[in-house]
Design brief:
Strand content of chain B: under 5%
Strand content of chain A: 5-15%
Number of strands of chain A: 8
Helix content of chain B: 55-70%
Strand order of the largest sheet of chain A: 2-1-3-4
CATH topology of the largest domain in chain B: Fumarate Reductase Iron-sulfur Protein, Chain B, domain 2
Number of strands of chain B: 0
Distance between the termini of chain B: 41 Å
Oligomer: heterodimer
Number of domains of chain B: 2
Order of helices and strands of chain B: HHHHHHHHHHHH
Largest sheet of chain B: none
Number of helices of chain B: 12
Shape of chain B: elongated
CATH architecture of the largest domain in chain B: Orthogonal Bundle
Chain lengths: 294, 197
C-alpha cells in the first residue's frame, strides 16, 4: 500500500439522485466551500444495499466490487456520503483485500480489483479539515441531535468509521461549526430502514422512540448521515406525531446541509425547501433569511 | 440445573419441530461464513436487536435451533425476514458471530428450496429493488415503489406519499442508468459467497 493519496471521487449512490437529493447538493457545496471540489465516480452502479445481501450473497459482493475496480482503474479513492453505501463498499473492500481466493472469484466475473482503493466517508474528511477556522456563519444556539443510524459505525473491523456504541465524529464536526450538540441516547438506534415500506407499523415504532428521545433532550433538529434514515424520519414524522401526541415537529437535515451553511454556502442551494417536515426553522435559528419556498 | 433446563428445552423443541438435521449447522456455517457453533447462548444478540419484538424466534434462539439441527423450525420462522441487517448483533457478539449474515444464509436457503416465504411483502420489496438494479444498474426509487405497490394492491394507499415527495422534487422519475449496464447484469445469479476466503 503506498502512502500517496489519490484524488477523491464522490460515490453518490442511488438515493442521493432521488429522495436524498439534499445530501448530494450539500456535500458538493461543503467541499466547494472548503476548496476541495470533487468529481463523481464515472459509471458507478448500485452498492447492492440491503436487498442484495438479503437475497443473493454473491451479488452483495460483486456489486460493490465493480465500483471498487472502477475507482482503481480511474486512479481515485472513493468518498462516500450514504451510510449504507459506505458500509457495503468498505466491507467488500475489506473482504477482497484480505482474501486472494475471493479476489479470484470476482475476477471470473470480469472484475479486476487489486485492493488499493481507500473508502472514506465525508464525516471523517470533515473531521480532519480544520473546520473551526473556516466557519463564516456559526450555528450558534442550534441544538442538534447527531443521528448516525446503524451502518456507518458498523462494523469496526470492516470499515465502520467510529465506535459502534458511542460515536463522536459528527458531534466534533458540528461543534466545530458552532452548533450546540445535545447529549442523547438514540444516536445509533435503528430507524427500521426498508421495513418502513413493507411493515410500516414495526418501523414507525422504532422511529417514534428516536423522535421521543430527541424531544426529551430539547433538540431543534436531527442531523442524519443516511438518506434512508432521513427519509423515514421526515416522511413518517407527521403520522407518528399524531399517534404519539408530539406537539412539535423536528426538522431532519443532512449533516452536510449544516456544514455547508456554517461554511457560508448559499442556503438556497442546499435543498432546505425539499423537506417534508419544514426545515426552514433551522435557517431561521441561525439567522439566515430564507430563500423563498415554493 | 442448567443441564436439566437445556434437556427440557431440547425435548420440547424436538417434539414441536419434528425432524432433526444434525449436519445442518455445518452447512449454515459454510454458506454464511459465520462460526455458529461458537455461540454459547449468552443472549446479547437477542437483547440488542431493535426488531426483537417483531420476531417469533429471538436471534440467539435461531442460532441455538441451528446448532440443534431444527431446520424446519428455523426455515418457517419470520425472524430472518424481519432482520434488516443493522449489524448491532455483529458488533456485540462476544464470539464475533455476525448473526445478520446467518439470517442471510437462512433466508437464501428458504428461497433455494422454494419453501413458503414467511413474509412475502418484505421479500417482494427487495425483489423490486433488485429488478430496478438489474434493469438500470442503479436502484430507481419511483419504479420500485410503484412496482411494489401495484403487486401488493396498495397503489391507492401509496400514491399520496409519492406525490408528496414529487412536490418536493425528491422522487426522480427519469431513470439514471449505468452506461455499461451489461457489466452489472452479468453479476446477477453468480452465486459467489463472501465466506470463500
Amino acid at each position: 500500500m503506498n502512502a500517496e493519496r489519490r484524488p477523491l471521487a464522490l460515490y453518490p449512490g442511488c438515493s442521493l439522485l432521488s429522495t436524498g437529493v439534499m445530501y448530494r447538493l450539500s456535500v458538493h457545496e461543503t467541499l466547494r466551500a472548503l476548496g476541495i471540489p470533487v468529481r463523481e465516480l464515472a459509471d458507478w452502479n448500485c452498492c447492492g444495499a440491503t436487498s442484495a445481501h438479503y437475497l443473493d450473497a454473491g451479488l452483495a459482493l460483486l456489486l460493490p466490487a465493480r465500483n471498487l475496480a472502477l475507482a482503481e482503474a480511474q486512479g481515485v479513492d472513493i468518498l462516500t456520503a450514504c451510510a449504507a453505501c459506505h458500509h457495503h463498499l468498505a466491507r467488500a473492500h475489506h473482504a477482497l483485500a484480505h482474501s486472494e481466493s475471493l479476489g479470484r472469484s470476482v475476477e471470473e466475473h470480469g472484475i479486476d480489483y487489486r485492493g488499493d482503493v481507500r473508502v472514506q466517508h465525508v464525516l471523517t474528511l470533515l473531521d480532519d479539515a480544520g473546520l473551526a477556522a473556516r466557519v463564516r456563519r456559526p450555528l450558534t444556539g442550534l441544538r442538534v441531535a447527531c443521528y448516525y443510524g446503524c451502518l456507518l459505525v458498523r462494523i469496526p473491523r470492516a470499515g465502520g468509521i467510529d465506535d459502534p456504541d458511542a460515536p463522536s465524529v459528527m458531534e466534533r464536526v458540528l461543534r466545530a461549526c458552532g452548533a450546540d450538540v445535545v447529549a442523547w441516547q438514540a444516536g445509533t438506534w435503528c430507524c427500521g430502514a426498508g421495513l418502513a415500506v413493507a411493515e410500516p407499523d414495526v418501523a414507525q415504532g422504532l422511529m417514534a422512540d428516536i423522535l421521543a428521545e430527541a424531544h426529551r433532550v430539547g433538540a431543534d433538529c436531527i442531523a442524519a448521515v443516511c438518506p434512508l434514515c432521513q427519509l423515514n424520519l421526515d416522511l413518517h414524522q407527521a403520522a407518528i406525531a399524531l399517534h404519539r401526541g408530539f406537539r412539535r415537529m423536528l426538522p431532519v437535515v443532512f449533516v452536510t446541509q449544516l456544514t455547508a451553511l456554517a461554511l457560508g454556502a448559499d442556503p438556497r442551494r442546499l435543498g432546505f425547501d425539499r423537506h417534508l417536515v419544514d426545515a426552514l426553522p433551522v435557517l431561521a435559528a441561525v439567522e439566515v433569511v430564507a430563500g423563498g419556498r415554493r | 440445573m442448567a443441564a436439566v433446563s437445556i434437556h427440557h428445552e431440547v425435548e420440547a423443541i424436538h417434539h414441536e419441530a419434528g425432524a432433526v438435521d444434525p449436519g445442518w449447522v455445518r452447512r449454515i456455517e459454510a454458506t454464511s461464513g459465520e462460526p455458529v457453533r461458537l455461540c454459547f447462548g449468552c443472549g446479547v444478540c437477542s437483547g440488542s436487536c431493535p426488531l426483537a419484538s417483531a420476531m417469533d424466534l429471538l436471534p440467539g434462539r435461531v442460532l441455538r435451533a441451528i446448532q440443534l439441527g431444527l431446520r424446519d423450525r428455523v426455515l418457517q420462522a419470520v425472524t430472518p425476514w424481519v432482520c434488516i441487517g443493522c449489524e448491532t448483533c455483529a458488533v456485540r457478539c462476544p464470539n464475533g458471530i455476525d448473526v445478520a449474515r446467518v439470517m442471510d444464509a437462512v433466508r437464501q436457503e428458504v428461497l433455494a428450496l422454494e419453501r413458503p416465504v414467511p413474509m412475502p411483502g418484505v421479500y417482494r420489496f427487495h425483489r423490486w429493488f433488485l429488478r430496478t438494479v438489474w434493469l438500470l444498474g442503479r436502484a430507481h426509487e419511483a419504479a420500485l415503489s410503484a412496482g411494489y405497490a401495484l403487486q401488493q394492491g396498495r397503489l391507492r394507499r401509496d400514491l399520496p406519499t409519492g406525490l408528496r415527495l414529487m412536490r418536493r422534487r425528491r422522487l426522480a422519475l427519469w431513470p439514471h442508468a449505468v452506461r455499461r449496464r451489461g457489466e452489472v447484469r452479468r453479476l446477477f445469479g453468480a452465486g459467489i459467497r463472501e465466506h470463500e476466503r
